[in-house]
Amino acid sequence: MVKNGWMMENAEAAYRYASYTLKGRFIAGEPAIAQHPMWSYFYAANVIRRRFELGEPAIAQDAHYAYLYADEILNCRFPLSEDLIILSLPFSEYYFNRFNHQFTEQEKVLWLLKI
Fold it and tell me: Cα-Cα-Cα-Cα dihedral of 6, 8, 10, 15, to 10°?
């Protein structure tokens, strides 16, 4: 049981346990996973295959994983991450091209002025 306790505190271990051992959700490990952008994205993409709300604040702190999360998991804009994505080439361009149909005309102009 000590091993499981450690896995509940380590994002990578919790993700790997969910992905390779359980082959599904690891509820007790989700708080640890949710602290890390990469593991939160991988957990959403590879384990639960849907939105991982608990991990969204962490994902939003990394432009690469935030873009992938919006593109592959949400299939829509990820407003929580947009202030970071807009500053991060090439992800700002990818994001705008992928979701420009969801921007208002004013948002398009403001976005293009920033990138």
Answer: 120
